Amino acid sequence: MERACCDFSFRTVACFRLMMTETNDNPKDRWDKASVIIAAVATVALPGTLAIVGKLASDRLEAHEANQKNRELDQQAAAQESFLLKEFYEAYAVSSPPEECSCKRRLSRSFVQLLKKSELRQGLYDFVIWDLLNETQKKTPFFEFDTDQDKWHFFGDVLEDCHTMHSNDGTVTKFDNWWKNVKETALRCEHNAKELNRLLDWLEKTYLPTGYGTGGLTSLQPVSATP
Question: Which domain holds residue 59?
Fold first, then answer.
């Protein structure tokens, strides 16, 4: 549309100049013809010009509204994220002592699952798992694995959630590498290696897909912290 209007304008101007330079017409005739041409140009070109201006204004308005809507969505997402993190903290850290996992503490998983950012969820999974593994590093008393303790089932639920997240995101290999690093790092605690291996083996057999880590866990040996 813009190109057509420009072509028409150029031709009209050329015609106007030709008529204004004709020597056979007196000045009054030339200005009369000019008035007719200008009126004709205005009649044809004005609607097109108004259409172009209207389209540009409409595009800018739509872009502004889209940006405004995106900002509102970002603000809503940030508010929801802050709310979920607050609820997670209150359920996990403020509820029961570390050696006991109450129902409220187990509920903290649901707040992590509602988070949309995989990176943020992974960070909370890391926090929970290493917080629980800290229990296995004690020397007095020595750590003894007991399947009846609720906190290890909570550990398994979190581990399963983490694996499910990576499966849905198509990043299972990333989970495998992460979990391998967790096991190798935890097994640096030599004095509890036997019981820790029992815990890790039970977690994989109970909470990860069938056959996961077969033959891999028992082959992990404690790594000395000093050369």
Answer: 2-72
How distant is the alpha carbon of residue 36 from its chain centre? 63
Write the pLDDT tens digit of every residue in 176-212.
Answer: 999 999 999 888 876 778 889 999 999 999 999 887 7
Other C-beta atoms lying within 10 Å of the C-beta of residue 96: 17
| Cis before 141 (ω within 30) | yes
Residues 113 and 196 in one domain: yes
Single out the residue in 54, 72, 90 at which a domain terminates: 72
The residue assigned the tokens 């290999």 is 173
Let me know whether 141 and 195 are in one domain: yes
d(CA 10, CA 120): 61
pTM of the predicted protein model? 0.63
Q: Are residues 195 and 128 in the same domain?
A: yes
Rounded to 5 degrees, what are φ and ψ at 138? -70, 145
106 and 171 together in one domain: yes
Distance of CA 85 to the CA centre of its chain: 16
User: At residue 16, what is the residue type?
Assistant: F
> Rounded to whole angstroms, how far apart are CA atoms 185 and 179?
10
The more confident residue out of 14 and 142 is 142
How many structural domains comprise the chain? 2
Between CA 190 and CA 224 the distance in angstroms is 7
Would residue 211 be called left, alpha or beta, if left means φ above 0 and alpha means ψ between -120 and 50 degrees? left
Write out the two tokens for 172: 């299972």
Rounded to whole angstroms, the Cα distance separating 196 from 218 reads 11
Contact 5, 48 (CB under 8 A): yes
